[in-house]
Amino acid sequence: MSAVTFEIVFILLLVMVNGVLAMPELAIVSARKVRLQQRADKGDAGASAAIELANSPNKLLSTVQIGITLVGILAGAFGGATLAEQLGVILNRIPPLTPYGEVIAIVVVVLAITYLSLILGELVPKRLALGNAEKIASIVARPMRLLSVVASPAVRMLSFSTEAVLRMLRVQKSDEPPVTEEEVKVMIEQGIQARVFEKAEYDMVENIFWLSDRRIKELMTPRPEIVWLDLEDSPEQIRRELIESGHSRLPVCRGELDDVIGIVRAKDLLALDLEGEPLDLNAVLRRPLFVPESMPVLKMLEVFKQSGTHVAFVTDEHGGIEGLATHHDILEAIVGDIPSVGVQTEPQAVQREDGSWLLDGRMLVDDFKDIFHIESLPGEERGNYQTLGGFVM
Questions:
Q1: Nearest Cα to 330, choosing from 303, 301, 302, 308?
Q2: Contact (Cβ atoms closer than 8 angstroms) between residue 264 and residue 249
Q3: Rounded CA gap, 149 and 59, in Å?
């Protein structure tokens, strides 16, 4: 093998090494940790190594950068000092090129090495890494971890120097979370376009994010709309209230709503009636649950799960009854309105023939803003109202 052939082959090998280093760098950094964790849980040691490297990006990037820099130096040395020199000798034998042979040789060699480095050493490996990030990361992670151990003295020196420069520049580490709500929404939107997710799934996720910042007061049935039974009601009155309300659970009070005794289930009263027993509310009474109006909705959901009850009285700061909240209210906030059987619900916003709108005062402010594409309403940030009726008043 001639010297020129050897140098060409050696430069091609250096370019390939550059690609081998560039591929794991992008694969490990861009791989989704959730998918890597799934592979690791199935016993994939490479995925575990990839997670370890992804959690220490400075070690990975320093190792890769050392390798790529060395490859670049060697390629430049062989290409510029050796291969270009020999090519220049050949070009100088051509009479029109005699004065410029060395210069032309250097330009040709540099362009050729640059082209090969970009195609075979950067673009192709990185495209492969992006297309199969988790798989490639799992394959190359262990060799890269071994390489980082070998290069650890140089890596530590580079890491120390990098941190020192950043401190001199007063660059602070970002406190931003690794994933934000907006990023999750964008990912799901992309999933919808790729037909991985359904639109209904996106709506539910968006509603859950909306709930995370809401208080139970925004979802409760307000006090004037609460249907309740009086402890002194006659059996006929109890039967009529059960039939007319259609509710599966009803509050029981003594004379007024603020004097709550407990909760009864319609099926318990029905069982008494079918067995020929008197409709004694005390016999089937259940202990009431009271929560403050400021309780977050997701916390309320946990309270429902832990207490085993599905109804809670929402109280103000003075202990007065503000409304009634149920697990059904939270479910509807996530999946949308679930009309009761035989009950026809009316839309909360109707546009009339003259172009005006007829709006339900119980409409949530967020629903109103969505319909009319409004960013915010006056005083909204103070939390003085949650419904359209509260805003008007």
A1: 301
A2: yes
A3: 9
Cβ-in-10-Å burial (0-12, 13-18, 19+) of 235 comes to middle
For 11-33, write each residue's pLDDT tens digit: 888 888 888 888 888 888 888 88
| Phi-psi region at 276: left, alpha or beta (left = phi > 0; alpha = psi -120 to 50) | left
Residue in 244, 250, 243 with CA at minimum distance from that of residue 273: 243
Q: Show the domains of the chain with their CATH numbers.
A: 3-168 (no CATH), 181-211 (no CATH), 216-344 (3.10.580.10), 346-393 (no CATH)
Question: What CA–CA distance (Å, rounded) separates 248 from 284?
Answer: 13
Q: How far is CA 3 from CA 10, 32, 78, 108, 360, in A?
A: 10, 46, 11, 18, 87
| 188, burial (CB in 10 Å: exposed 0-12, middle 13-18, buried 19+) | buried
**Are residues 260 and 251 in contact, defined by beta-carbon separation less than 8 angstroms?**
yes
Pairing of strands 311-315, 290-292: parallel
Verdict on whether the full-model pTM lies above 0.70: no
Q: What is the pLDDT of residues 365-389, one digit of tens each?
A: 777 777 777 777 777 666 666 677 7
Least confident window among 47-56, 68-77, 323-332: 68-77
Query: CA-CA distances (angstroms) from residue 84 to 76, 108, 114, 120, 234?
Result: 10, 8, 14, 21, 107
Q: How far is CA 383 from CA 216, 307, 323, 368, in A?
A: 13, 28, 17, 16
The helix/strand/coil state of 242 is: helix
Q: Which of 23, 20, 22, 40 is nearest to 32 (CA)?
A: 40
| Cβ contacts of 167 within 8 Å, gap of 6 or more | none
